[in-house]
Amino acid sequence: MQMKAALMYGPNDIRVEMTEKPACPKDGLILKIMAVGLCGSDIRNLTTDSRKGNYPFIYGHEIVGVVDETGPEETKYKVGQRLFLFPGTYCMECDSCVSGHSENCENEHVAKLAGTGGFAQYIAVGGEKIHYGGIYEIPDDVTYEAASLGEPLTSVFACLENVGVGYADTLVIIGAGPIGDFMAQIAKIRGAQKVIMIDINQHRLEMAKQFGVDEIINSSETDPIEAVKALTGGRGADKVISATPVNATQTQSIHMVRKGGIVVFFGGVPKGSMTELDCNLVHYNNIWIKGHFGASYDQSKRAFRLAIAKNFPSDKFITHILPLDKINEGISLTRTGEAIKVVLHPWD
Predict the structure, then answer these.
(1) Pairwise CA distance, residues 166 & 177, whole Å
(2) Per-residue model confidence (pLDDT) at position 111
(3) Domain covering 164-291, topology
(4) Does the pLDDT of residue 90 top 80, yes or no?
(5) CATH class of the domain defined by 2-151+295-345
């Protein structure tokens, strides 16, 4: 049997075509994908030689759907159940997992059990993934689109919790993309007093205001460091998060934070690139710099519960719902900043 999928044949060469539907594992299931979010990391992978010539390949990891088939040895899930498939999987046995940092799971085999393949109509979920977990049931009164936000919210949720964003912080977020908007919204939920958003795209900055952003700075028009200092009485922000794939914003971030403040390098920069830092400033101002990636098992569960909460404004984040056939349009809308979050429907 065949299914529709968006296959990547190379950088910027994504073709929606028919391919073989995966076989159902004897100890697993087949998930009929009802919605899949288009992530910034997907776009980066789809527009670069991410597979180093190993094509075709199916990306997509913000996956929600309904169980379509189960293998004879699968006993946990049944046909018809609505599921969110979290791409992270943790062994819960290595030193990192046992210490409460399952986001750093050292078992590479387990960590890669589920991660991609969502830009398609079906995906196979093996017994090992089911055993180790990271699969959450979606309540009947929650839309598939809202549930798909459980994955992109997870790392943001963990980041703000790990650095203790709360009352009465002044927080600077560099990067007004979907991740930056999630950060602003959750920061306000956690009690941040002032959220300052920085970007070079004015349209993105204006859209960010609906998520609790108090002040916007267009860094293509004004010096963002001087602007932050002006908005904080010369003191600097309590916390600054660089949420862009750009080394320059990491360099700028330490000049925006107060003495004794925290800077987070959230956005991944090009592999092998180096960021220039004024280390004397870091040293004498007692600035803490933290790298952030991923989330613990517990944080992923709580982030999913937030995504499906009735009072969480998922509809504001999801600006475009497109058929899978229009994945290239979704990439363009996201890159230009016209879209905040694009969700694709494989069956439309």
Answers:
(1) 22
(2) 82
(3) Rossmann fold (3.40.50)
(4) yes
(5) alpha beta
